[in-house]
Amino acid sequence: MRGLARDYAFSLMLVAGLMVRLVFVPYTSGSDIAQFASFSDTFLRHGLEFYKYADAKLYAEEGWPYNWPYVYGPQLVLLLAPLRALLRQPVLAYWNSGNYYVYVPVEWVVACKSLFVAFDVVSGVLIYLILSRYSGGRAALVGFALYYLNPAVIYTSSVYGMFDQIPLSLILASLYLYRSGRRLPGLALAGLAATFKPNVAPASLGVLVSSLVEDKCLKSRLSGLAAFVLGALSPFAPFVAYYSQTLSKAFEVLASLKPGYTYPIVYSFNGLSSLATYMHQFSGGDYEWVVSYWWVFYLVLNVLVAIWLTSTRERDVGLLALLLYLAFTTSYWRVNYQYFVPGIGLAALQVGGSRRRMVASIVYIAYIAFWVFMFPTSWWAHVHIKEPNMELWRVMDMFSLMVFDEGVYVVYSVLLTVLSVAVITALVL
After folding, report:
1. CA Rg, the chain, in Å?
2. CB 133 within 8 A of CB 181
3. Per-residue pLDDT tens digits for 387-413
4. CA 107 to CA 93: how far, in whole Å?
5. What is the pLDDT of residues 173-197, one digit of tens each?
6. Which pTM value belongs to this model?
7. How far is 416 from 407, CA to CA, in rounded Å?
8. pLDDT value at position 126?
9. Are the CB atoms for 83 and 116 separated by under 8 Å?
10. 62: part of which helix (H) or strand (E)?
11. What three-state secondary structure class fits 100?
């Protein structure tokens, strides 16, 4: 009976979460969805020479609405291009009376978000399966709810429209295989996730580091490393075979991302960067040096994780992946809101751990989710949608605190950084 009740609760949450997501899918759009259409158009136009255009230097000639470079592995464009080949409606981008307008076809919005929502489901189910196997049914339901019903996760996939849940699902599948004794395929999936989106790489390295630490045999270590590298580089293989400069172009784009002030402040989630940007904006002083030394903070947090790893007998691969990811999102100079989706997914797994780790993870997840109710999320219901759904717009405003003061977001980011350090400390104690 307990098993039946658990399955019923799981199914109910699965359907309810999906229904909430579907409400937003056709009627809201973030700016990245418009850019995804242009990335896909460029791939369909130039094929395996895609990375020749990834730096956005020819963005106007390519018809991109924004001059944002393609900073991801080829996995994303390989997933989106077939959808774009079927849905060729153009993105409208034009100036009018000094204002820049970008409108995305509803068909493209639905196609992108359907993919993202599908991987939300996959990630949630994997969290449930991992916790069911290793921590019991109650922990599985709680962990599943913390991720799948989380406003931050729903916002990312279904309101704004971003794809961090796809590499998260690869990490979770990697953890499931790794803990089941199938380490090589698990490491290959971790490598695949590492190059899917750069911000996910620290979590992927958690799986690799666990393998290198736990395996005592040199041959096993080398096999694991080879599987990881194969998973990471295999998506690039056809691109490199056709256009030899693919990897150098990809690294060139990443290297061009120099630390600086983080605008808009409402969408910046590193406390030091937000504070430096805010102080510069209102005083005119030079505080960019604070942002440029972000790597020092990152190094300190990783040393803390390394001390824990070398001094404990506990070998929880999921915990190490979470710690390395938190070290990154706590210190990196430019953190966007969608970066927290993998952190939420990995933190949800900790409900099956000690009471201290469970509480620290839940507090962290809840604090991140609160931002959704601060930010006027209805912005995405009309800024890129030519014919807005006014009813949904009004409903979204009803659930928003409608905070417009940038100072409030600076305080939120600073407290988030402090909380993240506290959570890392609690997890390693």
Report:
1. 21
2. no
3. 999 999 999 999 999 999 999 999 999
4. 17
5. 999 999 999 999 999 999 999 999 9
6. 0.95
7. 14
8. 98
9. no
10. helix 59-62
11. strand
Give dist(CA 375, CA 84) in Å, integer. Answer: 31
Identify the bridge partners of residue 100 per DSSP, sorted by sequence position: 95
Using CA atoms, how far apart are residues 373 and 380, in angstroms rounded to an integer?
A: 14
Question: Which tokens go with 231?
Answer: 């998973």
Query: Would you place residue 382 in the very low, low, confident or very high pLDDT band (cuts 50, 70, 90)?
Result: very high
Tell me the C-alpha distance between 362 and 353, whole Å: 12
Query: Would you call 93 helix, strand, or coil by DSSP?
Result: strand
Task: For Cα atoms 137, 140, 141, give the angle at the middle one, nearest 5 degrees.
Answer: 90
Extract the tokens encoding 419. 């909380």
DSSP class of residue 181 equals: T
Query: What 3-state class would DSSP assign to 187?
Result: helix
Q: Report residue 304: phi and psi, to 5°.
A: -60, -45
3-state class of 102 per DSSP?
Answer: strand
As a residue count, the chain comes to 429
Which two structure tokens, joined as six digits, stand for 202? 């620290």
pLDDT of residue 251: 95
Looking at the DSSP bridge assignments, the partners of residue 92 are 103
Task: Count other C-beta atoms under 10 Å from residue 220's C-beta.
Answer: 15
Phi, psi of 93 (to 5 degrees): -140, 120
222: tokens are: 């080398």
Query: How far is it, in rounded angstroms, from Cα 74 to Cα 185?
Result: 20
CB 43, CB 76: distance < 8 Å: no
Joined together, the tokens standing for residue 229 give: 């590298």
Which tens digit of pLDDT belongs to each residue from 287-330? 999 999 999 999 999 999 999 999 877 779 999 999 999 999 99
pLDDT at 15 over 50: yes
Q: Could you tell me if 317 and 179 are in contact, meaning their C-beta atoms sit under 8 angstroms apart?
A: yes
CB 39 within 8 A of CB 80: yes
Q: Which of 170, 11, 27 is nearest to 110 (CA)?
A: 27
Backbone torsions φ then ψ of 355, nearest 5 degrees: -60, -40
DSSP codes joined into one string, 238-288: HHHHH-TTHHHHHHHHHHT------SSGGG---HHHHHHHHHHHHH----H
Q: Are 186 and 175 in contact (CB under 8 A)?
A: yes
